[in-house]
Amino acid sequence: MDTEGYQLCTVLAVSVAVKLRTKAEQGRFDDVWLPSLDPRTGRGMHQHLSSNSETCLDQASVTERADLLGSSEDDNALNEVTLLGRVGGEPQKRGTEEHPVVIFSLATHTNYKYDTGEFMQRTDWHRVCIFKPSLRDTVYNYLKKGQRVYVAGRLTYGEVKDEAGNPRPTTAVVADDVIFFQS
């Protein structure tokens, strides 16, 4: 790889080689797309990745991200979820020997302020499923209840039958990446 014009940046505890552009050349960023959520703050990442004020990275638009993945304009689609929250219980092994899965619950919250000045916090619970073998084993062996984690993946929908045999819709996040934070 030709390293001229590249700078090593650490983002989300992962080192990547990123080609930086000058402010005059800001525009479409063709080399690397980075997540749009900073798990340390929960805010979008539109930030300088270098102390040099002449270089910065623009966040790619959804269309540009699709172009980077080789999609045409006619078939743009995106199913992407990023969550930052706390683990609700110890991870559990489910599935079969041929199709194992590890699941855990993840709590995220949103703070609201009413007109009266009273603050309220709403907690949402997410079911996270992990099928990737190495990630599945790591999460099962090391993730603990109450631990703060960043999850990147995709939404999936399904159906299960309750005890009475009635279909019940389900929603889950299929994780592609889980980043652990110290408790």
UniProtKB/TrEMBL annotation:
GO terms for cellular component: mitochondrial nucleoid. Keywords: DNA-binding. One of its GO terms (molecular function) is single-stranded DNA binding. It comes from the Eukaryota. One of its GO terms (biological process) is mitochondrial DNA replication. Pfam families: SSB (PF00436). Transmembrane segments: none annotated. HAMAP family: SSB (MF_00984). This is Single-stranded DNA-binding protein. It comes from Timema genevievae (Walking stick). The lineage of its organism: Eukaryota, Metazoa, Ecdysozoa, Arthropoda, Hexapoda.
